[in-house]
């Protein structure tokens, strides 16, 4: 029997009507770049402020880390010649402790020598004579303001200088606290250093960019301290020879001060120059003081500005502007120790935030002294040598 057309089974259209299709998700618009920049600046300031509040703990910890990284080649050499790992770590830690003791002992001796020298009656008498000559010279040009002369007398008063130096000697509690914390942290870091290579290898397996950035940071810190120490010794020896030839008292103490202040980038030279120039002025006159300034300036320009940067290399090579800004920022964040650790701290921030992130390496164009050769990581061979 024929099937009626009205009763025939029609195929079911299983297609979803166009009007019932769910709309495509709308991509959320990213935040404006200006907002991201402001948020980044605010977050960076908050982090720096937090570090500033904890500087009494952060500074000795980071100082200990720098010393352990600088002494790592000695530990690896001891292990290479067959010394057990525990004994190699103990000997390396002992060498670091000896360096710290020598550093602070030399600093205390130089400060004590300056206080004793400036406290003598001869220098007070010579200061009075120079002051009278300066006032007479100013009066010859019509500069007779009582306020100006009072300010000069207050600024150049030897008692103020002696009080300032005495305050350095009297702040032994802070120095001993810093040294004690640093020694304790070094002890634990030396224990962990025996397994550092295996730990870094595990990090490399999971995050090779981070591992390479950290190894690059360690190499840069090591080169910075070795080169700075070597050239600081060279400049100190040349300063002692020049001061002895010029007849400036306490030439050895000024040489020690020059070596210690060499660790402070940019302004360390000025800090090491002022005391010997003042003593030369009081002991031998203006001409002798001017010769001291000229000799120090020539040695600093030739050794620290022309020769030393060539040995530092790209691992520590940041622009002079970045170096100066680092000094200001880290001196505020970590106090006086921050002035010594300014460049290593900047290298750590650069390694963690820039070198470890391939998308952020373009920032090296503004930070590195030679951006065309700057790189985030190290080769496989250098990573193996480091670990």
Give keywords.
single chain; 387 residues; globular; mainly alpha; 18 helices
Verbal overview:
The protein has a domain at 53-120 and 161-194. It has 387 residues and is mainly α. It has helices at 33-53, 55-70, 72-80, 85-118, 121-140, 146-155, 158-170, 172-193, 196-206, 208-246, 251-261, 268-284, 286-312, 320-334, 336-340, 342-355, 364-367, 380-386.
Q: What's the structural blueprint in terms of helices and strands?
A:
Layout: H1 33-53, H2 55-70, H3 72-80, H4 85-118, H5 121-140, H6 146-155, H7 158-170, H8 172-193, H9 196-206, H10 208-246, H11 251-261, H12 268-284, H13 286-312, H14 320-334, H15 336-340, H16 342-355, H17 364-367, H18 380-386
Helix content: over 70%
Average per-residue pLDDT, rounded, comes to: 76
Q: In terms of per-residue confidence, which ranges show pLDDT below 50 for 5 or more consecutive residues?
A: 376-384
CA-CA gap between termini: 91 Å
What is the beta-strand fraction? under 5%
Précis, in short:
With 387 residues, the protein is an all-alpha fold. The chain has a domain at 53-120 and 161-194. The protein has helices at 33-53, 55-70, 72-80, 85-118, 121-140, 146-155, 158-170, 172-193, 196-206, 208-246, 251-261, 268-284, 286-312, 320-334, 336-340, 342-355, 364-367, 380-386.
